[in-house]
Structures are given as structure tokens and as C-alpha cells.
Amino acid sequence: MIGYLGPVGTFTQAALQSFLDRGICKDDIEPFPSIYALFEALAGKCIDNIFIPIENSRGGEVFAAFSGLNQLDDSYFISNEVVFPIKQSLMASQPCELSDIKIVYAHEQSTRQCNLFLHTYLSQAELVFVDSNGIAAERVRDSLDRVACLGYGGAASLFDLVVLKPNVHDDDDNKTRFVLISSEQHSPSGMDKTSFVFSTYKDKPGSLCNILSLLSQESINLTRISSKPTSSHLGEYLFFIDCDGHAMDPKLDNCLTLIKQECLYYKFLGSYPKGCVL
Hints:
By secondary structure, the chain is an alpha/beta fold. The protein folds into 3 domains: 2-86 and 176-182, D-Maltodextrin-Binding Protein, domain 2, CATH 3.40.190; 88-165, D-Maltodextrin-Binding Protein, domain 2; 192-273, 2-Layer Sandwich (Alpha-Beta Plaits). The chain has 8 helices and 15 strands. The chain has helices at residues 11-21, 35-43, 63-70, 108-113, 115-121, 133-142, 207-217, 250-262; strands at residues 2-5, 29-32, 49-56, 60-61, 77-85, 88-92, 103-106, 126-129, 147-152, 162-165, 175-182, 192-199, 222-229, 237-244, 265-273. The strands form 3 sheets. Strands 1, 2, 3, 4, 5 and 11 form a 6-stranded mixed β-sheet that branches. It has a 5-stranded mixed β-sheet with strand order 8-7-9-6-10. The chain has a 4-stranded antiparallel β-sheet with strand order 13-14-12-15, sandwiched between helices. α7 runs antiparallel to α8. The longest helix is centred in the C-terminal third of the chain and has 13 residues, at 250-262. The two termini are 22 Å apart.
């Protein structure tokens, strides 16, 4: 069973279905109300895998995803990643003029991705934020007023809606990265990525630079670095790293061993095939 960030009709469900359709994994799927609920279900052995968004090219990183990854049981890893294009559509319960729309329901992230369109064509409409675009579609389906929603156009049929206008996003290159978390560890494929998290000694000058230099000295390409505050003390941070290579590659294996020795805290998150755009 694969749990995913629900409800139905979201980009997460669409990305997961595209992932399954490629034959990478075959399993039943079940929506969960939040990323926190997904990690709880995984920790409680209620499901075998979870599929979550981790970062968006416009909106940045999903904090709840990184928090959950850091607290993962050591028997779970990132085992796959996919990159899904985000194409926003404007939907309503029936055809209507854009000037007649009174309210647009959407996840806040979606409104940011469609800011120019909303300003140009729907300046008269009230923007109402909801927890997901699936909930937004439900609100429109159940309303008798002239309202609309933003979201995945493929969800229109699920909620008996019509697409008033497709591709209302501001950026055609907008994409979201999703990861599958499971107990499976992939063997090296030759095109892999490795993720880990660490913290440095607060009062040790140059400690972050020293750790990053270990990757540089081995010519290991760093593809992403982000920092999040720890929950214990102000001014202390966790650093999340993605780099090219597999942890079983001798060069990267040796580098990770040295990094672990230099860190106050270290956690391996997984080595997995680089995701393609679906």
C-alpha cells in the first residue's frame, strides 16, 4: 500500500498515478490528510510506502516533508523520485464568463503560481485558501454560486466540473519533485542521487565549509543544500544535502564516512535513481 498526500484530485495523486503507470512500482494507493499523518502511518506500519511532494521549482521546499524525513526510522529510505510538471487549470461547475466569478478556491501555493492570470482576468474575485486543490474542487462542486477553483485539470471529471481555461499558470517550467519512501534500497544504477542530513558543531568555526569541502575534494557534485532550524536551540540548524552518486560507490562511501565523523549529527536518507520528468 502506498499512502499519498490527498485528497483525490490533487497534483500529488496525478504524479503518483503517472509514476505507477510507468511500471516503476505496482501497488494500491490511499490518500492521507497531511504529510504528518503519512509519516505516522509509516512509522506505525499501517502502510508500506509513502509518496510526498518535497520541493517546487517556484514555491521552494516543503518543510513538513523534511521534518518527517529527519525523523524517519532507520529502516526507511528515499527509494525513488519523480518530477511532475505543474499545469494549473481554472475549473467551475458549469461554463461561465470569467467576469462573473465571485470566488476562486485554491491552495495558497496555486494562487502564487497563477498570480498574473488572477490579477489580469479575475481581479474582482475573492481568493479563498483551502488545504488542497482537491478540497477546492469539492467546494466548487457543492456551491450554487458562480465560483471556480484552481488545480489539476484532470481532476475535473472526478468532481463533475468543467475546465474554463487550461494552463493559467505563470511559469511553463513549474515543476514539483516528489519522492517515494520505502524500506527498499536500490543498487547503483549509474545515474543516482544520494540524500543525507547533518548538523555541525555550533562553536566550531568553518565546520560547514569543512564538510562541504570533503565533497568538493572528491569532485562529487552537490545538487541541493538547504537548512532548517533545529527544534532544540535558536541558531542551530540541520543541513539537507542532495549529491550525485550512490552511497555504495567507493568514492562517495568514503566521503560520507568522513562527513559522519565531522558532524555533530548525521542521518542517511537514501540513494536512489535520478528522477525523470513525467
